[in-house]
Amino acid sequence: MKIASFDGSRIGVITGDRITDITDLADPNPGMWPPVGMVRFIDAFDKLRPQVVKAVETRPSKALDQVRLECPVQWPNKVIAIPANYDAHIEEMKTGTGLISPFRASGQGFFLKSNSSLSGPADPIVVPPIPGREIHHESELAIIIGEGGRNISRADALNHVFGYACLIDVVVRGKEERVMRKSYDTFCPLGPYIVTADEVGPTEAIDLELSVDGVIKQQANTRNMIVDIPEMIVMASAVMTLYPGDIIASGTPAGVGPIAPGNKVHIKIQNVGEMTLDVVAGDVGMHPVWDKPAG
Ligand code: MN
Q1: Distance of CA 122 from the midpoint of ligand 1 (Å)
Q2: Which of 276, 272, 287, 284 is nearest to 144 (CA)?
């Protein structure tokens, strides 16, 4: 099932090029702040599923191009991110720009990206005007947690996955704290919707691709991940209670590179979806922290 946020935090199920509004099944107050309807929907999904299926069969639907898709999870408890999760990317960081020191996710753990950096498939990536710094795209498979938990076992890990989405981990290259470099507003596009785990199927060999202005920059397969999806859940839940709607960005493959205003960034993940994002110039975001060379 493909589940989207649209038109002011409404919840819909996408079938082909149509969307069925099922907001009322999970969220009595769509449009209220904070926008936690999708988190509640994910939490209740197993119980709601028969009603959702019936609603899709019986309710009128809208053409997908008549609605505005939004970030599918707008108010998660956290966005967890795995660094350096493909060997080829680690190599490029060692030998390429040299802006970050080499390490591997298997010995490095994870970090957090600000929840407020999340944006949706129709939102542009707004790059701040930081002279002398590159802002890079990282194409990543996002894992959306279903049932929460702490200290989840490897054997049970995939039972805690609600679904998957495309995610771009946008970052200012440099040596400053990673949270600051990765947490500008719109630095975490997520979408275009969530595909439930049953529909994605086995995740050991999923193709990912990212292009900028039609030129392919990143191409990889999840079989080349260093830390696989079950282990990400084991590792994160060893430390923190996972909650429904939590997002795990699974790390980028090789081919990261700069984006600039005017670019169109396209991300495509097999069995998950694709979206194209405009890159635009922001007029805020300067700070003296950036007033030094990146390296
Ligand atoms: Mn990343």
Answers
A1: 21
A2: 272
Determine the distance separating the centroid of ligand 1 and the alpha carbon of 20, expressed in angstroms.
33
* 267 vs 249: CA distance, rounded Å: 14
Q: How far is the CA of 103 from the centre of ligand 1 (A)?
A: 13
Cα distance between residue 190 and residue 155, in whole Å: 27
List the domains of the chain with CATH numbers. Answer: 2-69 (no CATH), 79-285 (3.90.850.10)
Between the CA of 151 and the centroid of ligand 1 the distance, in Å, is 24
What is the tens place of the pLDDT at every residue in 44-87?
999 999 999 999 999 999 999 999 999 999 999 999 999 978 87
The pLDDT of residue 90:
66
Ligand 1 center to 62 CA (angstroms): 35
Is it the case that residue 100 has pLDDT exceeding 50? no
Task: Report yes or no: 55 and 22 within 8 Å, Cβ to Cβ.
Answer: yes
Q: Find out whether 211 and 277 touch, Cβ atoms under 8 Å.
A: no
- Angstrom distance (rounded) from CA 82 to CA 95: 21
pTM of the prediction?
0.94
Task: Select from 71, 23, 9 the least CA-distant residue to 51.
Answer: 23
Ligand 1 centroid – CA 31 distance (Å) = 31
- 22 CA to centre of ligand 1 in angstroms: 33
| Measured CA distances, 73 to 70, 214, 244, 264 (Å) | 9, 28, 10, 23
**Tens-place pLDDT, residues 7-28:** 999 999 999 999 999 999 987 7
**What's the pLDDT score for residue 98?**
46
CA–centroid distance, residue 138 to ligand 1 (Å): 5
Q: How far is the CA of 140 from the centre of ligand 1 (A)?
A: 7
